[in-house]
Design a protein that fits this description.
Keywords: Membrane, Transmembrane, Transmembrane helix. This is SGNH hydrolase-type esterase domain-containing protein. By secondary structure, the chain is mainly alpha-helical. It has a domain of 123 residues: 3-Layer(aba) Sandwich (Rossmann fold). A 3-stranded parallel sheet has the order 1-2-3, sandwiched between helices. The protein has a two-stranded antiparallel sheet with strand order 4-5. Strand 2, helix 3 and strand 3 form a beta-alpha-beta unit. The two termini are 42 Å apart.
Length: 183
């Protein structure tokens, strides 16, 4: 799920740069993800729905955000079945003095979930390159392997140290970690 573009709309990033950078990002994500991965791009929320930009000056950024959304929709349409666009809308007005509220996030979660649900159906899970969710035993083994790899790097000192928050001094001095050098 990609949620991006407010800064680009406010900074009036050119549509050419937006198209190029977003196309590069989508190409990279498509190549790096499994075939069952659906890349969902959320539209840029109406800029004037952000209280600090709810002004005449915000009109320009709001218009530019809509333009960037149109560019995004065209890119996504060319991206095939693995890429989807979910339009954004303004959340309910937050309480005074707050930019975002619990209600705002709940609203966006509902909007996104209702539009993403059909895109994330069971038919997207069963592909040959999708890794199964690890069982508890497999997760334990995987974690042990990760920990061993970190330990073998010799960059973490396993001896516990404590910090006296009152004095902000280490109880025992920090020493440089043992580092292995490449032969």
């Amino acid at each position: 799920m990609l949620v991006l573009g407010v800064n680009e709309a406010v900074n009036l990033v050119s549509t050419r740069a937006w198209r190029r950078d977003l196309a590069n990002l989508l190409t990279f994500l498509s190549a790096a993800a499994s075939c069952s991965t659906c890349i969902i791009v959320a539209g840029i929320q109406p800029i004037r729905s952000i209280p600090v930009f709810d002004s005449r000056v915000g009109n320009l950024a709001d218009k530019h955000g809509r333009l960037l959304n149109r560019v995004t929709m065209r890119l996504v349409a060319d991206g095939g079945d693995r890429v989807a666009f979910v339009p954004s809308s303004a959340a309910p007005t937050p309480p005074p003095g707050r930019y975002r509220s619990t209600e705002s996030y709940a609203y966006w979660a509902d909007v996104l979930a209702s539009r993403m649900g059909p895109l994330l159906g069971a038919d997207r899970i069963a592909t040959s390159d999708a890794e199964p969710a690890p069982s508890a035993d497999r997760a334990t083994v995987a974690e042990a392997r990760r920990q061993l790899a970190v330990d073998e790097l010799g960059i973490v000192d396993p001896r516990p140290r404590s910090v006296s928050t009152a004095s902000r001094h280490w109880r025992e001095p920090c020493s440089a970690p043992n580092r292995r050098h490449a032969p």
